[in-house]
Amino acid sequence: MNKGAFLLAVVFLTRLPVPIKDKVDDSQLNQASGYFSLVGLLVGLLLAFIYLLLQSILTAEVAVILTLATGIFVTGAFHEDGFADVWDGFGGGWSVEQKLDIMKDSRLGTYGVAALCLLLLLKYQLLVSLAEHGYWVCIALICGHTLSRAMATSIIALLPYVQQDTQSKVKPVVQSLSNHARVYLYGCALAVLVVFWCFDYFSIWHCAALIVSLTVVRRLCVTWFNQQLGGYTGDCLGAAQQISEVVIYMVCLAIWQ
């Protein structure tokens, strides 16, 4: 494990105060992409712990809201911002250039606000429904944050990066995925499923349902991004992560209903 690349992944995906002394370049960021699912696992574990702590003294509904708020605080709404920008750009732009200009605008439009509100409401309702099944909501949080980041990052290998205006201030983004990074990325995601399978939380069919669902979501996202932009941007990866996270909660709820 490359400690420096892992710490860079933590800094890139969260707002945790991790010191990075050396100057970061694109190659280092590409190397750090292999640890994105591991960072997602740590975020999921943190949120599961927060939920367990809160639900012991508060109602499940309040605990879910505060858990979601903690996730947004820890990640700096990094992926949610990309999700909203994608809806603004794809909904409000006609040409690729217009869509990219809208997506890099720091202001939110009607499409982005509406999509973000619906996303948060859906997450809330799904997690509250999962809370009725006891501690299963914690498993869903861990799977949701780990597997969704693996799925979103894997899109990098399937589409070209769409270069925005070089004179504009754009977000840094991973632009390649090495074989070494893929091993760590997928390995962490699969390890989570194996652990839950070994402890009889998931059957082999439940694991298969999650993998198949995410594979379908990835294909739909790749097709969508390709039709709209001819590739992907950092905002697209954030949108893919949010969409897949919600799908994971849906599959988990279907499993435990």
UniProtKB/TrEMBL annotation:
<feature type="transmembrane region" description="Helical">
    <location>
        <begin position="183"/>
        <end position="205"/>
    </location>
</feature>
<keyword id="KW-1133">Transmembrane helix</keyword>
<keyword id="KW-0460">Magnesium</keyword>
<keyword id="KW-0472">Membrane</keyword>
<feature type="transmembrane region" description="Helical">
    <location>
        <begin position="108"/>
        <end position="128"/>
    </location>
</feature>
<keyword id="KW-1003">Cell membrane</keyword>
<dbReference type="GO" id="GO:0005886">
    <property type="term" value="C:plasma membrane"/>
</dbReference>
<protein>
    <recommendedName>
        <fullName>Adenosylcobinamide-GDP ribazoletransferase</fullName>
        <ecNumber>2.7.8.26</ecNumber>
    </recommendedName>
</protein>
<keyword id="KW-0812">Transmembrane</keyword>
<comment type="function">
    <text>Joins adenosylcobinamide-GDP and alpha-ribazole to generate adenosylcobalamin (Ado-cobalamin). Also synthesizes adenosylcobalamin 5'-phosphate from adenosylcobinamide-GDP and alpha-ribazole 5'-phosphate.</text>
</comment>
<feature type="transmembrane region" description="Helical">
    <location>
        <begin position="134"/>
        <end position="162"/>
    </location>
</feature>
<dbReference type="Pfam" id="PF02654">
    <property type="entry name" value="CobS"/>
</dbReference>
<keyword id="KW-0808">Transferase</keyword>
<feature type="transmembrane region" description="Helical">
    <location>
        <begin position="33"/>
        <end position="54"/>
    </location>
</feature>
<dbReference type="GO" id="GO:0008818">
    <property type="term" value="F:cobalamin 5'-phosphate synthase activity"/>
</dbReference>
<dbReference type="GO" id="GO:0009236">
    <property type="term" value="P:cobalamin biosynthetic process"/>
</dbReference>
<dbReference type="GO" id="GO:0051073">
    <property type="term" value="F:adenosylcobinamide-GDP ribazoletransferase activity"/>
</dbReference>
<comment type="similarity">
    <text>Belongs to the CobS family.</text>
</comment>
<keyword id="KW-0169">Cobalamin biosynthesis</keyword>
<comment type="pathway">
    <text>Cofactor biosynthesis; adenosylcobalamin biosynthesis; adenosylcobalamin from cob(II)yrinate a,c-diamide: step 7/7.</text>
</comment>
<dbReference type="InterPro" id="IPR003805">
    <property type="entry name" value="CobS"/>
</dbReference>
